[in-house]
């Protein structure tokens, strides 16, 4: 499998699958796909439980997390390489590798992943107070995850105890940052400086991903 983010002002994700390989994406993300690529839809959020309870729980979880009830599974059934090109709903994409470590991002920002991941929700009091909303997407699994970004993303790795202040309109995702290390900083000075209602105080260790263009998506 080969995944490559291409483009300048507007970026897309170019995925090349070898024989038998699979890839997962949000419904509606395909720009084009080779005609022999097999495309199936699967229920999201049911954790493999096909019973009525699992389906209902999956539907509720998907709705709350900002994702579709179905996820697209692409499989290469041929003996040659096949290609698909995907795009998010804003201008760019970020590739973030997770290995048993949850990724927290804005609602609706998940686009695709190299393996099946669990996309759920995470309640955040700090996010609500900081203007981001009470809920984030929580993505768990072992895969490279592709999420939306308004412009080429800014990545900041924080050491233990290191703190930055982020305008909530630019925050895209956080990896390895616990709820206890996120604080909302209300200040009239923020408004006067044009920085937004609040600046999110985020303390490491962990990684913060930000977009250069402020968005309320």
List keywords for this structure.
217 residues, mainly beta, Double-stranded beta-helix, six-stranded antiparallel β-sheet, 19 strands, 47% strand, elongated
Characterization of this structure:
Helices cover 11% and strands 47% of the residues. By secondary structure, it is mainly β. The protein has a domain at 2-150: Mitochondrial biogenesis AIM24 (Double-stranded beta-helix, 4-Layer Sandwich), CATH 3.60.160. The longest helix has 14 residues, at 52-65. The two termini are 30 Å apart.
Strand content: over 45%
Residue runs with pLDDT of under 50 for 5 or more positions: 62-66, 127-133
Question: Into which percent range does the helicity of residues fall?
Answer: 10-25%
User: What is the CATH fold-level name of the domain at 2-150?
Assistant: Double-stranded beta-helix
Count helical runs.
Answer: 3
User: Mind telling me the C-alpha Rg?
Assistant: 18 Å
Shape: elongated
Give the SSE order as H and E letters: EEEEEHEEEEEEHEEEEEEHEE
Number of beta strands: 19
Major sheet size, sense and barrel closure:
6 strands, antiparallel
Quote the average pLDDT.
81
Mind telling me which CATH architecture of the domain at 2-150 this is? 4-Layer Sandwich
- Structural class assignment: mainly beta
Task: Please report the first level of CATH classification, the CATH class of the domain at 2-150.
Answer: Alpha Beta
End-to-end Cα distance, whole Å, is: 30 Å
**CATH homologous superfamily title of the domain at 2-150:** Mitochondrial biogenesis AIM24
């Amino acid at each position: 499998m080969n995944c490559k983010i291409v483009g300048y002002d507007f970026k897309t994700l170019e995925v090349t699958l070898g024989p038998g390989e699979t890839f997962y994406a949000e419904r509606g993300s395909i720009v084009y796909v080779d005609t022999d690529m097999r495309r199936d839809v699967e229920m999201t959020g049911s954790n493999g439980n096909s019973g009525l309870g699992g389906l209902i729980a999956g539907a509720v979880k998907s709705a709350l997390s900002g994702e579709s009830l179905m996820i697209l599974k692409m499989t290469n059934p041929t003996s040659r390489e096949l290609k698909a090109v995907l795009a998010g709903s804003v201008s760019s994409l970020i590739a973030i590798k997770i290995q048993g470590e949850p990724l927290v991002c804005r609602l609706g920002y998940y686009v695709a992943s190299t393996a099946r991941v669990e996309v759920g929700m995470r309640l955040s009091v700090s996010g609500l107070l900081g203007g981001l909303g009470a809920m984030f997407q929580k993505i768990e699994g072992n895969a490279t995850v592709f999420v939306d970004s308004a412009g080429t993303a800014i990545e900041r790795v924080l050491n233990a105890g290191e703190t930055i202040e982020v305008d909530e309109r630019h925050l895209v995702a956080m990896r390895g940052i616990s709820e206890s290390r996120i604080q909302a900083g209300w200040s009239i000075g923020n408004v006067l400086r044009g920085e937004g209602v609040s600046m999110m105080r985020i303390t490491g260790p962990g990684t913060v991903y930000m977009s250069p263009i402020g968005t309320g998506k």
